[in-house]
Amino acid sequence: MKLNQRYSAIVAAFVLALVSGQGALADLPPEDIGVSEVLPDETPMHWVWVVDAGTSFSRALLFDGDTGEMKGQLDTGYWSPGMTVSGDRKSILVNETYFSHGSRGPREDIVAVYDASTLTPRLEIPVPPRRMVALTMQHMIGTTDDQRILGITNFTPMRTLSLVDLNTGTLLSEEDTPGCGQIYPAGDNRLMTLCGDGSFLTFTMRQEEDGQVAIHRSGSQAFFDPDEDPVIISAARRGNRWFFASFNGYIHEVDAATDQPMLAEKWSLLTDKERRKEWRTSGYQSLALHEPSGLLYALMHRGAEETYEEPGEEVWIYDSETKARLIKVELEHPTVSIAVSRDAEPLLFASGFKTIVPTWMLFTLGITGQLGDIFTYLAPVVDVYDARTGKHLRTIEGTGTFPIELHVP
């Protein structure tokens, strides 16, 4: 058959298929424009927010841990430093940055408060355009326990803390925090910032008789030695206690009941043998804590000190009261972040990557120097486990391009 005859035959077949399919197309109901699904007023506890930092314009994806179904998505602006879910599970707060021409032009920074049931913004609060632009991670923003004051970590490179009054929708203050950064809530009216010398700088907000909010700042004694064994900024909380893991595998429990936080206990995640084998916490979100039971979850791997942010291969579960290790969970995939739901039947979420080519192919490409960008051969996933037994329940795919941060309501 000549080329033009083949072309005519292909066109004829396409037209026939199009005509024959018109009846089926006509049966499709018209789409209702402007209609949005409504989620529960309070985000269910087995749902999880996955922050995708794989592109310059970040987003947050909402999944049901029981089914793996995606429930919604928020676009969070230019490399958002993170988000937080309100204590009543009815709002999502995000620090967002936008440029008038996409990646350039006049800049606008806001705190966006989203309705958890519709994922539409209820409030946008202008804030100084000085927030820290870095890889999305925990504790870049945080609220007081009464949900009134939101703190934002700034870095220009001068360190400051923006304090936003969520009740009035205004910037309350911008405080100097030399050498101090990430934010840790510590009561109804207090926020702690972690400092490079091993101490905390704490801000306490009190409402005066005239209705104005007064800000009091106080320093603390160092609770770790930053030269000998620094702690990792990813921390977990139970009540007034914050749990920090150090590079060498020790847990520092900080009592944050007053404006003078102090070291309450220090204990080891590792045996001497495990420490010699270079087991240590890993990933970007390396600790999680189930507050009702007191179970502490640590993402672990083997490697030298400088590998502390590499993906983990196991989760070790401890009783935070007795300090006893209960079980080790071998993970389905290399994992960078973990989180645990807050209910009586908790789920353990583990965000990481699975290979989409055989292992032998990765090995061959590596030894021949042809591996290139490793992410070409990886697909992001979130694995879901029974948090009490470590049993793998399901793998959620389609979780973005680099799902680095997890938030449970």
- Count of distinct strands: 28
Count of runs of 4 or more consecutive helical residues: 4
Quick one: overall form? Answer: globular
What would you report as the Rg, rounded to the nearest angstrom? 24 Å
Average pLDDT number: 88
Secondary structure category: mainly beta
User: Percent of residues in helical segments?
Assistant: under 10%
Intertermini distance: 65 Å
Q: What's the main sheet like?
A: 8 strands, antiparallel
List segments where confidence is low: pLDDT < 50 over at least 5 consecutive residues: 9-15
Strand content: over 45%
Briefly say what this structure is.
With 409 residues, the chain is mostly beta strands. It has four helices and 28 strands.
How would you portray this structure in words?
The chain is mainly β. Helices cover 9% and strands 48% of the residues. The chain is built from 4 helices and 28 strands. The longest helix is centred in the first third of the chain and has 18 residues, at 3-20. The protein is globular, with a radius of gyration of 24 Å.
Which key terms come to mind for this protein?
eight-stranded antiparallel beta sheet, 409 residues, 48% strand, four-stranded antiparallel beta sheet, mainly beta
Task: Describe the SSE topology.
Blueprint: H1 3-20, H2 22-26, E1 47-52, E2 57-64, E3 70-78, E4 83-85, E5 91-99, E6 107-115, E7 121-126, E8 141-143, E9 149-155, E10 159-165, E11 170-176, E12 180-185, E13 190-195, E14 200-207, E15 213-219, E16 231-238, E17 241-246, E18 250-255, E19 262-268, H3 272-276, E20 279-281, E21 287-290, E22 295-302, E23 312-319, E24 325-340, E25 347-355, H4 359-367, E26 378-386, E27 392-397, E28 403-407
Antiparallel strand pairs: 1-2, 1-28, 2-3, 4-5, 5-6, 6-7, 8-9, 9-10, 10-11, 12-13, 13-14, 14-15, 16-17, 17-18, 18-19, 20-22, 21-22, 22-23, 23-24, 24-25, 25-26, 26-27
